[in-house]
Structure formats: structure tokens, C-alpha cells
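Open question from group meeting: does this chain pack into something compact, or does most of it stay loose? Before anyone orders reagents, we agreed to write out a predicted structure and look at it together. Recording both the input and the output here so the notebook holds the full record.
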Amino acid sequence: MAAAAAAAVGGPQPPQPELPAPGLALDKAATAAHLKAALSRPDNRAGAEELQALLERVLSAERPLAAAADGEEAAAAGGGGGPGAAEEEALEWCKCLLAGGGGYDEFCAAVRAYDPAALCGLVWTANFVAYRCRTCGISPCMSLCAECFHQGDHTGHDFNMFRSQAGGACDCGDSNVMRESGFCKRHQIKSSSNIPCVPKDLLMMSEFVLPRFIFCLIQYLREGYNEPAADVPSEKDLNKVLQLLEPQISFLEDLTKMGGAMRSVLTQVLTNQQNYKDLTSGLGENACAKKSHEKYLIALKSSGLTYPEDKLVYGLQEPSAGTSTLAVQGFAGATGTLGQLDSSDEEDQDGSQGLGKRKRVKLSSSTKDQSIMDVLKHKSFLEELLFWTIKYEFPQKMVTFLLNMLPDQEYKVAFTKTFVQHYAFIMKTLKKSHESDTMSNRIVHISVQLFSNEELARQVTEECQLLDIMVTVLLYMMESCLIKSELQDEENSLHVVVNCGEALLKNNTYWPLVSDFINILSHQSVAKRFLEDHGLLVTWMNFVSFFQGMNLNKRELNEHVEFESQTYYAAFAAELEACAQPMWGLLSHCKVRETQEYTRNVVRYCLEALQDWFDAINFVDEPAPNQVTFHLPLHRYYAMFLSKAVKCQELDLDSVLPDQEMLMKLMIHPLQIQASLAEIHSNMWVRNGLQIKGQAMTYVQSHFCNSMIDPDIYLLQVCASRLDPDYFISSVFERFKVVDLLTMASQHQNTVLDAEHERSMLEGALTFLVILLSLRLHLGMSDDEILRAEMVAQLCMNDRTHSSLLDLIPENPNPKSGIIPGSYSFESVLSAVADFKAPVFEPGGSMQQGMYTPKAEVWDQEFDPVMVILRTVYRRDVQSAMDRYTAFLKQSGKFPGNPWPPYKKRTPLHPSYKGLMRLLHCKTLHIVLFTLLYKILMDHQNLSEHVLCMVLYLIELGLENSAEEESDEEASVCGPERCHDSWFPGSNLVSNMRHFINYVRVRVPETAPEVKRDSPASTSSDSLSSLHSSRRPKVLQRENSGTAQVFSLVAERRKKFQEIINRSSSEANQVVRPKTSNKWSAPGSAPQLTTAILEIKESILSLLIKLHHKLSGKQNSYYPPWLDDIEILIQPEIPKYNHGDGITAVERILLKAALQSRMNKRIIEEICRKVTPPVPPKKITAAEKKTLDKEERRQKARERQQKLLAEFASRQKSFMETAMDVDSPENDIPMEIATAEPQVSEAVYDCVICGQSGPSSEDRPTGLVVLLQASSVLGQCRDNIEPKKLPITEEEQIYPWDTCAAVHDVRLSLLQRYFKDSSCLLAVSIGWEGGVYVQTCGHTLHIDCHKSYMESLRNDQVLQGFSVDKGEFTCPLCRQFANSVLPCYPGSNVESNLWQRPSNKSIQDLIKEVEELQGRPGAFPSETNLSKEMESVMKDIKNTTQKKYRDYSKTPGSPDNDFLFMYSVARTNLELELIHRGGNLCSGGASTAGKRSCLNQLFHVLALHMRLYSIDSEYNPWRKLTQLVEEMNSQQGNEEQQPEVPILYHDVTSLLLIQILMMPQPLRKDHFTCIVKVLFTLLYTQALVALSVKCNEEDRLAWKHTGALKKNACDAEKSYEVLLSFVISELSKGKLYHEEGAQECAMVSPIAWSPESMEKYLQDFCLPFLRITSLLQHHLFGEDLPSCQEEEEFSVLSSCLGLLPTFYQTEHPFISASCLDWPVPAFDIISQWCFEINSFTERHAEQGKALLIQESRWKLPHLLQLPENYNTIFQYYHRKTCSVCTKVPKDPAVCLVCGTFVCLKGLCCKQQSYCECVLHSQNCGAGTGIFLLINASVIIIIRGHRFCLWGSVYLDAHGEEDRDLRRGKPLYICKERYKVLEQQWISHTFDHINKRWGPHYNGL
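C-alpha cells returned:
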């Protein structure tokens, strides 16, 4: 078929004149159908020609558009309908033709039916949310789209969700990349068997039309491309072309989505070479085609590429064309086959970029190289399409189209080959690109799909030389930024390194190529080819050597460096990514014996490269001083392959080691790094700036350490195990520059080091030796042991979260190596060494994550300080580990003092490395140890406890690893060659420990004290201890033949080096040791040195015993333990020695020494027997005493400090609890604001600013520090118990009509519709939404002090978290956030006691008094400071909330409004306090909220302002409550004026507050009780009315009847039955009960009313009022609230309020009606009240009924209930469109109070400069918003103009947050956290508990 099509299209036929021009205008569908029929005939030649002519014409309509893109004759070229129209037209034609006359949509559907694809292949771009399941993945790059993931079964798998960085494609259904068990339901079933065959004619048209269409697209791309001018970036032009092409590419993309059938047609078209040749060759008469072909060739040429056939034409043979010169000039290892080296090292004259400085290589085939880099030949549409895709820098649409085709297997192979063919071109484009980041991502988006598939990668490697291409391309890439290396020999160095300052490295531009390389090396078959190909290995080592020695640091000795370069980031990243990761990839394939050959290859070429490197930098034996590079990738390759060879491949180590000379060179640079680390930590590099510290830290940091410091130390261990130990030890001390310090003399001169650095350098040297000798990471530990050791080290430093542990444990850094963090062993080791501490909550609200902490036995047995030191980035972590260890020992009672780091037993050494232990048994080390012990004992300067600790550690290591047990101790010292050295007889530490050293000759400065002393008279044997002479006379003679010893480390090292170089061992034995080190001291250092002889007479053992005395501060403190308990020697493992300080360590060492040899045991006993006075007697005692005193003083000071700190902490804690606690009343210290003690005449306040105390007065008022905030918490109460859930499907929506706020709003607007406005505003409370809540921390201050405090804050330039201009400040004492001061009303407490006395007046008298008092106008007191403050605080209160929450009246600004607002503030605060107490008063007592309540002061302020508005006496509701009105009909008179609100519609609690605030303050108790009693009668009547409306007709009649019978009983007024029946009969006169419509039945409750249920209804109706009233009484009169059970709350509160007569008996069941105390005859007043209702229901029966039923039982407010699993929220909301702008928001958020979906920071939804979240926080929470950020899982709090991140309420399985969903692990709700959040919301304490607030500038 395809061949036929090709034939039909082929041939340069002239356009057919037969088809008339108007043919285009014919009906498209008809034409298409006609052509399809013509083509279906067996002889379709005519049809084909006709179609071709049509296409030629249709598609060339697009052609002028290309000219338009160039921007010249746009208008002219566009023709009639403009370019856009022509283009549309063409696409329409194509669709018609494809469908062959049918409808295009039907055609699409038909093709889809034949989709055999079992792959998902969904392509996504950056930021898409995808999943990765490690359990199902074969390749680590495997990813799934959300749909396939959720459709598959991954329960219990190790998966995570991630945001794609570069884009990707779904692998579901691809068994090469993932296991079939993980396929989703859709892709499991489909197999090709049950898909029918595609009918031939369905896609026939496509096969004709598509080649033409794609060719048209290519021509377009050719036309649109203009080479950018020299420097002008041309992105704009390219983007313009791409925009014009958008529809075409989208059309292709849609075709790919039609499924497998269409994809295979497209594959045919794209890969068919004949089609391509015919259409694009540019031959023939068509001028357009010719021009297009020329443009293509120009583009090729400008890219530095050639088109092979045209070489002759373009004359490209001379090596002048761009890059090809490199190839011709040739380059070591740039080819697969290695050429011969020229013997002459001629230098290239032009020295192009330092390249020519290398040895020239004659390449055996210079073309191979060029073919990779410079030649491109396109043979198909696919190839040219990819070429233009690259040229246009990978436009997203094109990438998606090319990737969408991948499910087609044939295409996949073709495309991969094409991609490889263009690889070099990609690299060049990438280097030039301005948008290299975007481009990198797009490249990887493609390559990861191709190279993750092992089968494909292997095929391409074999057929297209993939490896050669990649390595060569990488090499070329790096060549462009090489500079000369300045390491070692600046002038003559021939080595070149990459320049880390270049953009290529700085911007990580090489990343995509390296990433591909790592990716293909993860496939075993490919890696094996690489490891077998010697040429490739040579090239690769060449590449690696570019990084060897890069980023060289030179130590600044004089000035501080001017500019701190940050190139080290680039250097470390480059080594890790370009060198280390490929290395780990290769290592992962060298795991078994069979792969030995590979290791040998790598090691061989690595050593060759290293040898070349040493030659290139002219290295002999001394490193250049004061310079260091941290980058030695060649050393590290060598080390890691060695380690692998021994560990996994059973290779013999010596067979892969070089000669001694090479080993000596190899150890120099890694050792230099270790010494430099010590120098950097000693601040010797401080003039190089902070970046050098950064390098030292990065070098050991967890992501880098196992590619950097670990291989370095391993390499040094290997060198040490094979080189002469004396040489190695002396090298170490010389590198660390502390040789001069190692002298017996008390003073010395150091020629290379300042005195202040000596101690830390010495510590560094010893620590390094300890690490070198104790570390077993590569010397025999198994992987699990390593993991365990790493984990213990990290956990000992600090408790860690699971994720930080995963991050800190150095995993194999190659992500594709298949070792997965979080794999099985990680979890099992973690559970073995650590305990999980679940997150706890402090009431202060700092939220913790789940932490892992080491188990006790880990501290006891596994804590390894060496490992900790190796792994700490910051030195403080070592201290932290030691502190934790100390704490553990104290707590477990193992050791009380300050312990030393414990000595830990090591895993056994692998036999290959046994030689390492010779370091411990060499004289040089013993001399150093002896010298240091001596110096410490003699208190020489510069030595610290740390030095002693390390010295003892080394001695102990030596004893643990002593070579052979001494059989006969006498014999071991004989033999002349052993004794030519007179310090120690042998090299075994065990025997050297007991060897006495008598005299030492030292070089000292002339000022030293030693010089003054005469040298001893004789140095013969009699001066030695008798013990000694009796034992070994032979030795002594020889020993004293030279008077004394001089030892020089440097000389020692030189000598060894010479020995090795000369290779003449015979000579070496006779070399006489040079006496002094002067020869090598730095010139010009003028060492005024003289020789002195010191008398020592000590052995290591005797020094240790004296040290024991010194450390313990007692003489003769050491007593050999085995003298008492001989058992000790038999079972040496004694736990008491495991932990302890220096004394324990010395005892442990002496015990070990005694165990190792009888001789030592005897000598120890002997030394102890001699009561040894300390050596130089008086002087030392004084000094010792001094240091001991100093130590003691220090210790005491430390303890004092600890004590103080502890005390301070506990104080702070108790204070914080008082200040912060909202939920625990018990543990609180009461902070009474003014204590009500009768003998005090006036309340006294302390000012926290000036510290004075005194009463608050009119002219100097005191105020409470308060925070005013608007709150809508009350409005969120709902009447149902079921909490609302956050909606997670479209169906679940939350409607706010059942909230308290909504119900109150409706009620108010209903009243305002029918009644007089001013009267309505007295009948209800507002403040359910946007009410003002006042809270205080309880501290008081003078108001004038506060003003000056605010001034000082205003002038303080420090950035505060609050805005002083808005009056915000923090309490000067407790730092709690506040924004106003509430004046304290001057008044005495005694008065209030008088006011509380009960009076015996009758209720009628009291009612009159109340009315009179209310009638008095409240004149505002004279202008005092107090009254001014009262006014200003009232203003503050008003301004706290928005205008819409204050203005409810119809006439704006009416005084009724202010009146309503003021008493509502009181209501809001009382209601909120009730909620804080849990919604009832059962708990009684003063709750924490009550203690710090400021209601009393608030009431004064409000009352003062309310009394300014007097209510006209005839409108005062008090009248209606207490008096009968004579003429009932008078109200009916004026119809046109709206009536007042009937008293039964009034809210009783509001009435209570109005009545009380209208009274002069302070209020008398009996007046208060009177008001309550009167209001209770109204409330009770309301309850009866509501009850009567609720029940049905029959019930009503029954009750009416029963009540009427009892009406004449004596207590009729206190019987609810009588009252109810009266209410019913009164209301029946009106129309209230009449409307018994159908809809009424809905309201009628089906329950039968029993007396009990009625009683309960009445009590529940009245309870809210009683609660508020009791609270009010508690605050006004300071009476305590009684506690009670819930069922008796009503009776307790009513008796507390004085409603219950005192004589009331409680035996028979309690009846609420007994609390009634009617001021006027009950039936009269009730009928009066009912009359008002009746007259209203005459006209509005419906509304009248609705207003009577009030819902009084509100449940506590709650936040929305969240689902268990975070994924359910995420999946629903992260793709949800915003209802305002219908786009999917970038940062979606959802309000946790009401469930509204909002855009965070979305500019689309901004209104009047407020972003949506801020706006919503004002509307929903009156300024407080709680939002869950969907993409981050965190909660953000908005409070007014500030916001803070609160944290997350979703934690993963390890109790950790996952902010920004970076880890993507499943998250589960943490109920405790959510409770804390809700508690903070309800108690309004966000401001106090959360500390990190910032302004949001309305931008959230």
C-alpha cells in the first residue's frame, strides 16, 4: 500500500491542468468522497494524480505564510482571507480528505475502535503530578499517570507521588520497564488477539495525504528558520514561527491520540525513505521546493554539519570548517581505536585553549570521530523533523508529538536511532542555547523514555555505536572549557582541567548528557560492552582526568581574598555527576567473580591515567605548599574499583597494586586533603573566606562523602598497609606540620605553623590516624554493618526524622544503581537500632515530628565516636553526640561524671589489609606516643584532653591488634639488627611499652629551662633503676653507647623514601641516621637552637600510671585490679571499663597490657609498689595544683551555670503555661486582676512598664493590655451534631444556611421587613459574624507609660512581626500580642461588697427603682484622662470589625446602630467564654478563660457609652414587661406606621444586656436579680408559645382542656400546664394556628409529648439564657460558679441566680415553672403579650409562626472534618477549576471553616487589590482565615494584615510533615494536630501561639 502511495506521489510531474480551478470551492466532502472512490479502484493512477494536484494546491496556500513569518510582505502575501484563513482552510481540507467524505469525528471514532495498543503512553510536561512505584518498577525511571496508578493495585508498595520536573510518559503496559502485576485494569487485558483487523479503505486516504502534510510542515520549518545574527538571540523569531505552526502540530498530535492504527500509518509515513527522497530532494522544476532545499542546506552548514554527498560542492575537505579541526588534529583517546604515541613531546604552537599541550596522538582513523561530530544525513521525514526540533530548541508541542508516537514499537526503534544520530548536534545546540535549563529538561524528557529500556539501549549500542557517541560527545563538550592546571608546578604543568567558572559547569549544562550516560550504564548488557572496550575506557579516563585537580585553592597568607568565588558548587556537582555517578553505575555490574576482568581493565587504565597525570604536573615527591584541591576523581575511581575487587570479586589485592614508588605518589594528594581539612578547621584558611569552609563541609557531607572522603581514606589505608609504616607515620606528621612540636623539650620553635594553630593541628593529625586505623568501611564490613554504623552515627548526633535519616545516610549516589533507599534492610536496621518517638504536643503549640532515637543498648555498645567525627559536617555535632552520650550514662547510672569517648571494638580486618596494623607497631609511632604522654604529664603547653584521649586510643588499638604473642620475651630483644635504634628495642607495642628510656638529647631554644641544668655526671648503667640493670645487662651497654637519642621524623621519612627509590635494601641497613633535622628546616627561620640532654627514666607504662595519679588527683591512685581479683585476667571483658573518663581508659589499657604479657604485668606491679613521687617534685605539684584548681573551678562554674539555666527554664515554663494555656485549668497559677479582699479599700494595679503599683485614678488611669479581634467563630455554630465534612466530590457541597450567623441574619431581616426599624435593633443581638472579642494577658500598665512605650516602638527600626501604626504591640512583660489598652474603672472593692448585700425590698419596689435608674440620663463624666481613654478604646473596638458587621439599620448612622453594636460586644464575649468552657457551665469554677477575663472592665466602658443614649420611656421594653397597658387597641390606631416588635419576638438575652448596661454602674445585686426574674417570665412564656406552635392540633386541644381545669388552683401561676393552656387559648383568638397547610406537617414533630419531654423542652429552651446570666453575675459580682452534673445544670444555675425560692424542696422531680416570679398577674400580662402577636398574625400568619420558633440549642463550632488520607483531597482539588476564573489555579487552597475553594496569590481572582484568600478571610472569618494549601499540604493562617504558616495536619507513616509534597509519600490525618488547630481557632490564640508572622500585603 505504502509503495503504491509513494509511486502515486512520486515523480516530478507538472501540476495537472485538468482539474478546474474552481474545483477548490466545490463541496469538500463530495470531492473527498469522489477521490476516495477513484483511489479504491484497482487502477488508481488517475485518482492518485488528481489527489496530488489538489494537495499541491491546497497546501501551497500555506506557502505565502512563510514569507509572512519573515515579516516582510505580510499583507501582500496573505492573499484574500489573510494567512490565518488559508491555513484553516488547508486543515479543513486535510480533515475532509482523511475522512474520505464522511464526518471527521465519526472517522476518528472508527479509527479508535482499532486501537490495539496495550500501552498507556500518556505524555506529560513539567509540573504534572505522576507516581512512581519502586516495588513494580524494573527501571528506576518508571512513572505512571495518576489514572493508571489508581486503577492498579499498589497497596503496601513503596511508591510516591512526584511533580515531574522535565516531563515524562506513563509506562503502564510496558513490561520492559515495569512488572505486569502493577499494570492498571485498562492495560492488563488488551492484547492484540481480540482487536479486529483494520479495513483497508479506512486509512487509505491518510496514507496519501499525510506525507504531503508533513512535508508541508517541514518546508514551513525550513522557511521560518533564520540563523541568528552574531550575538542577537533569536528566540523571538523562532517563537513566532512556532506559534503560527501551532494548529498543524496539534493536528498531528490529535492523530497520534487516535490509537495504534493511526500511529502505524504515521510511522510508515515518517520513516519511509522513498517518500522523503521524492518530496524533498529539491530537484525538478518546482522553484519553491528548490528554495526550501537550499535553506535546509544552509541551516545544516551553519550548524557546523555537512551533508555527506555535497562535500565536493561545498568544498569542506580542508580542515577549516568549524569543529572538524579538532577531529583532524586528533586527540588522545578521542577514538575507539588507540593510535601510537609520538615519542617526541612536541608542543602545538597555537596552543588552542591549552589543548595542544597534550601529547599528540596519531589517530588510526580520523574519520570515525568526525562522523560522530560533524556529519548528518537525513533520509526520512522523521530525521529531518528531529533536526528542526533541535534547531528550534525543542518546542514543547513537537516534543509531545514525537513522544506520543512511542507506543508504536517500530517507530520507537527508528526514533531512538535518529536521536542517537543527532546526539552531537543536540550537544552543540544545547551549548549555544540561552534557555539551557528548559532545553535540558526537554532533552531528558525524550531521552529517558528511550534509554530506560534495556533491550532498546542494547540494540542501539550494537547498531549505532551509542557508547562511542556518548563518550565522544561528552569529551568534546568539556574540551570547550579547559584551562591550564596550576597544581604543583605552575609554569611547566602540561595538565589541563575544566574551568569551573564557565557557564557550561556553573549552570550544569552538561547534565542531560551525563544523565543519559548514567542511564544507559545502568543496563548490564551496555555496561559490559563499555567495560570490555579498551579504547572507550582510555577515552573515559581521559575525560575524568579533566576534573582531576580542578578548582584549586591557594591559601591566602596576607590579605583576605577580595572576591569569594563560589565555583566550588560547580566543581563538586561536576565531580559527583560526571565522574562519580557513572563510576557507581559501572561498579554495580562488578559484583561477582566472573567480572574480575572488567576491574582489571579499569584499574589498569586508571593507573595509566594517574601516571600521565603525575608526569603532566611534574610531581616528584613533595606536594606544593599551601594549595589544595578536593577533586581527585582518578584516585577515587582507582580506590573504589580496588575495594570492589577485594570485597566482591575475590581478586588478590597485590595483583592490582602498583609498585611502591607509585603508592607513595598516590597517597600524597589524599593525605594533603586530610591535612588541609585540619588546617581549615584550625582557621588557617580564614583569609580565603567562607567558601573554603563550604568546601570542607561539602567534602564530608552525606551526598558526597562516599564518593569523596571515603574512597580517599580507603586509598590511604591501602597505601599504609603496603608502605613502610615509619615512612607513613612520619609523612602524616609532616603533612600536618606538627613535627617540631613532637619534642621532649618544654619549648620549641615551629618553622611552619603559628603557635595558636599547633594544638588543633596535632589533634587533627591524631584524629586522622585514629580514623585511618579504626575505620572499616571498605576493609571488611558487610553492607548491612555499614548501614548500621552509619545510622547509629547519625542518630547519636541528634534524634532524626525518617526522611532526614534517609537523606543523611550516604546511599550509593547513582540513582539508577538499583539500590533503593528505604529498601528492606534500611527499615529492619532502623527498627533494630532506634525507637520511634511519636510526635508530641506541648500546650504552647510547637509541633514536633515523629523522631527516631537510639535504643539504650546502642548507646551502651555501638556508639562510635570515630564514625561520628568522620560524618559530622559541623563540629558542634560531635559535641552534641558526646552530650547525649553523657546524658545517657548519667540517666542509666553507668557513669556520673564527664565521660570520654568510648573505645569500640572493630569488625575484623579483611586479610588483604592486615598490613595496616603495622602502623601501630612501628617505632616512629611509639616515640610520638611516648613523647606526647611525657609532655602531657609534664604539663607542656599546647596539649589538650583531646590529644591525650587520642593517644590512649592509639595505644589501645595497638594492644588490641598486637601482631604475635611474645613467646619468650628475652629472645625477642636479641639479634643485632633489631637494636641499632636506641629508642625502642623492637617494633611491637606490647614489649615497647615497658621499655625504659633514660636520656634524650633534644634541640631547644636557648631560652628554655632545660638549658640551665647541668648535664648528668655520668650516663652509665648505675644511674639506671636497679630493676633494670639486673634484668638485661647486655642491652644496657649497647643502649648507652651513644649518650642519648635524637629522633627526627623528617629525616626518617626522607631516608625511607630514598631507600625505596634506590631499591637497594642491602645499603639501606647500613645507612646511619642523620642526627638533626636542621638540614630540612625552612631557610631563614634563624633557629637559635642548642642541644640539651634530658633525664627521662620513664617507660610508657610508668607514664600511664603517673597519668592515672595526675588525672585522679591522688598519689598512688592506681592499684592493679588483678592483685585482688585474679579472675579479671581470665575474663577480660568487664563492663565497668566500657564507659568512663580518662582514669577508666588508663585502667583499661593497663589491664590489657598486663593481659598481653606476663612481663608487663610484673613491671606494672613493680612500678606501683615503688611509691613514686611525681617527677620534678615541687614545680609540678604547683602546676598540677593550679590546673586541678582551674579544672575544679571550671567544673563548679559549669554546674552553677547549669543550675541557673535549669531554674530559669522552669520559671519560664511555668510562666508560659500561665500565659499560653487554654485548655488545662488545673496547673495554672491564678493571675487575678484585682483581688477582692474586704480590707483593701481600692484595687491596686502594677504597671509592667514603670513598675509602680497603685490604684487607677481619673487623671492617671491604669489599663489592661488587651487584644481586640473580630471573630466569626460564633457564627459557625451549627444545630446538628454531625460535623460537616470537607467536600471531596462534586456532589458534596456545603451550604451555609444552617449556621448560627445565617439564622440570625434571616431573623433580623424578617423583623426589619414588618416592624419599626429602631425597635428591631433592640430585639436581637448582632456580632455572630465579625463580633469583637476582647482578651487580655492579665497585665496592667499606666496609659501614659503605654503611650511612651508605643513611641519607642515606632522609632525602633528593627523589623517587627506587627504593625505599630495600627496600634499593635507586644505586652512588655510576657510578649503576648496586643493592640489596645482597656482602662480600669476606678472603684473600690468594699463598695461592691456593700452592693452585694441582699435587701428585703419587695420585687415591686425593685422594679420601680430599676425604672427610675434607667430613666436618669447618663451625663458623660467631665473631660478627664479616664473618659478620654474610654472614648478612644470604644473607637478601637468599633474599628476592629468591618463596617458591614456594625451597620444593620435601614437609616445609616442611626444611634440605634451604635446601641445595638455595644451591647452585642458584651454578648459576643459572654457567648465565646461559654464556648471556651465547653458550651455549658457544668465544670463550674473560674476557668482559665475566666481568670484572665476583662469583662468587668469592658462592661464599664460599654455601660458608660450606652448611658449616653437613653431610650424613650414609652419604648422601654421594661415597661411592657412589668406593667399592664390599659388601652390595648391604641396600637392599632395608626396603620401606616410600622408597629413595634412584639415583646414575645424579643431576644431575652439581648434584653438582659440592654437592661443592665442602661443602669448606672456599679450595679446592685438585688437590682440584677430583679431584672433576671422579670426576664425569666418572658422567656418562659416564649418557651410555652414555641411549644404550642410545635405540637399538632389534637395535642393543643388536649392541653388546653387539662390546663383549664387546674386554673383555679393556688399555684396556678407556677404550673406550666395551666400557663400553656392559657397561652393556647389566647393565641387561638388570632390566626396563628389556623394555617394547617400540608407544608406545616413537615415542621410537626411526630413524637408524642409526655410531661417529661415537655419539661425537658422548656428547660432546654431556657438554659442558654441562664448560662449567660450566670456568667455575667460571676463577672460583675465575683461569685464563683458551682459545678454540677449535666442533668441538674438548670436547677443549680437557677438557684445560683436567685430564681428558685430558698425554701424550695428538691425531693420531688424538679419543675422549671417553680422558678417563675410574676411581677404582675400572670394571665393579664400573658394575654397582653399574646394580643400583640395576634394582631401581627392577622396579616402575616406564616412569618409570625417562623419568628416564634427560635433554635436555641447551638452545638459547639468545629472546623470541617477532613478525610483520613490526604490523597483524596489532593486528587479532587489539585485539578479543580476555580469558580471565579474557571482556570485551574497554580496554588489552590481550601478554607477549612466553610470549604470554599480559592486561588492563593491568584491574580485572576483579585478584587480591588485584594487577592482571593485575603478577601475570603474577611468575608468568612472577619479577618481570620484558615486555609489548606492543596499542593503543599500545609495550613496557612491569615489574621488581619498578617499571615503565618501553621504547619501540616497530615503526617506520613513516620509522623513527619511533607511540606510541598516533596517526598510524595502517603499522608494521613493527625487528629491531635487538627484538634490543636481547632482549639487555637476557637480560643482565638493564633496570635499568641504562632511566632513567625509576616505581612501579606493583600497578596495571598
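Observations to bring back to the group:
The longest helix spans residues 1177-1220.
The chain is about 50% helix and 5% strand.
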